[in-house]
Design a protein that fits this description.
134 residues, mainly alpha, 2 domains, 8 helices, globular
Amino acid sequence: MEAMYYVLAAYLLFLVCAFCQGCMVVCKKKEKSVSEFKENDLEEEMNSSIPILSNALKESEVEEIDDLKKIKGVGVKLEKLLHSLGVYTFKQIAEWSEKDVQKVDSYLKFPGRIERDGWIEQAKALYEEKLKRQ
């Protein structure tokens, strides 16, 4: 019976690791959690001279910052994350490449959310609506 508990525990650990992005790196650095690793990773990338996304901007380069929370699935925390990645406008999201989507997706707690919620399509519609009002 005791052996069955060990098998179950090992299986549960496998399931947790299977859903944990970046797990192999984090498991090697046992003192850090996944979220701590991703925050530190993001901070290091932001301090590098190479932009994280193909169309990343500095806040000072943006004429008008869009309310990204208008995109279904983007709340205050995700808007803050997008800003930290240099994303401030609907146009930027509308122009994301597959590589950009993968990069942003790697920082989300629920990978695949961008496609599931249709962020790019929503951003295109919101950008077109914004153009019509001007």
